[in-house]
What does this fold into?
Amino acid sequence: MPINKKTNYGDIKITDNAIASLAGSTVCECYGVVGVISKSYVVDSYLAILKKENYSKGIVISRKNNDLIIDIYVVVSFGVKISEVVLEVQKRVKYTIEKSLNVDVKEVNVHVERIKEN
It folds into this structure.
C-alpha cells in the first residue's frame, strides 16, 4: 500500500519497494553490516546478500494506523558488537525514512540472520 502525498503540483505515491530501497541502502552504510538477506532465508537455507534492486525481499514494510513498521533481515561481520550494530541500524533507518519521506516510523525491527567470518 503506497504512501500518498498531495502537493501543489500534483499527487505523489511512494511504494513499499521505494521505502525498502531507501532503508536497504541506509542499512548497507552501517558499520558491521555485511548486507541485507532474504527474509525467506530460514526456509530456503540459501544465503545470498541482496543487491540494491532486491532489497524488498529482505526488508518488510507494514503499517499500523499511519505509522510504518520496518523489519530488516541482515548479515553482520564476525567480531563486531551485535547490539551496537543493531542499534545503529535502527537509529539510522528511522532517521533517514522520517526525514526523507516525512512519515512516522513506529518500529525498526532488525533480525540478525547470520554472522559472516572474514
Observations:
- Strands lie at 3-7, 10-14, 33-36, 59-64, 67-77, 105-116.
- The first helix runs from residue 16 to 28.
- The chain is about 30% helix and 35% strand.
